[in-house]
Description:
With 293 residues, the protein is mainly α. It has helices at 2-10, 21-29, 35-41, 43-64, 74-100, 105-123, 131-162, 164-175, 179-196, 199-216, 221-235, 243-251, 256-279, 282-290. Helix 2 packs across helix 10 (199-216) and helix 3 (35-41) crosses helix 14 (282-290).
Amino acid sequence: EYSAAANIASAPSGLLIPPSSLLIVYSLVSGGTSIAALFIAGYIPGILWGIACMIIAFIMAKKQGYKVSESIGWRDKLFLTLDALPSLLLIVVVIGGIVSGIFTATEGAAVAVLYSTILSLIYKSLSLKQIPNVIKETAEISGMILFLITASALFSLVMSYTGLPEAISNGIISMTDNPIILLLLINVILLVIGTFMDITPAVLIFTPIFLPISEVLGIDPIHFGIIIAFNLCIGNITPPVGSALFVGASVGDVRVEAVFKYLVPYFIALIILMLFITFIPELSLFLPKLLGL
C-alpha cells in the first residue's frame, strides 16, 4: 500500500514533463500557445513534483522503518544505466528536435512513436504480432480524443457566440479585484474539477473559460497552461474519479480506500508546490525565456 501510494503520487508528473499530450491539447484550445515553450516550461514543475514525492516517500519510509534494498556494485549500476539509456534518450531526441527546429511538435510526436516502437521491439516488450492490435487501440483512443476536440470546438464556438466566457470571467472578477484571491479561486475550482473529470475534457472545456481571466490578470498563457496542468494532475490522483489513482491501485492490487491514507502527505506537499508554481511565474517561464521561446 505504501509503495502503491508513492507510485500513484509520482505518476502524473509525466503529464508535465514532455512529451505531454496534456500540454498539446492546451495549446490547441488556447489558440496556438507555443507547444515547444509549453514543453520546456513543464520541466521544472514536473521535476519539482518528482522531488516532492521523493522527499515524502523518504520521510514515510524512515517513519515506518522500511528496510532499504541491498546495494549493487558499480558494474551492475553501469549495466542498468546503459540498458536504460536508449529509453531516456527519447526526451532528448524529441525536445532537441523541436527546439532546434528539425521538426515541429506534431512531427515530434510521430518521431516519438516510431522511436518507442523500435525500442519496444528491441527490448521485446512488443512483438510484431501485437502491432495490429496496438494500431487498433491507438485508432480508438485517437478517435475519442478527436471527438472531444471537435465537441470542445463547437462548445467554444457556442460560448463565444453567447458571450458566456466573458460573463463567467466578469462574474468571477466582480467577486474581488485582488489577483491573489482570483488565482486562489481558480486553483480551487480546477482542483475540484480535476477530481470529477478526466484531464483532457477538463482542459478542453475550462481553458476557454479561465484563460480570459488569466489575461485580465496579466498571466502569461504559458504559465497559465502549467497552472491548469498542475491542478488537473493533482485531481488525477484524487477520488472519486482520479484515473491514475484507480489504475495505480488496480496494478498494485490494493484497495483505493486502503492506499488513500498514504496519499494524504503527498496531497499536502503537492498543493503547497502548486501555490509556488502559481505565484512564482519564473518556475515555469525561466527555461522558455532562457531558450528564447
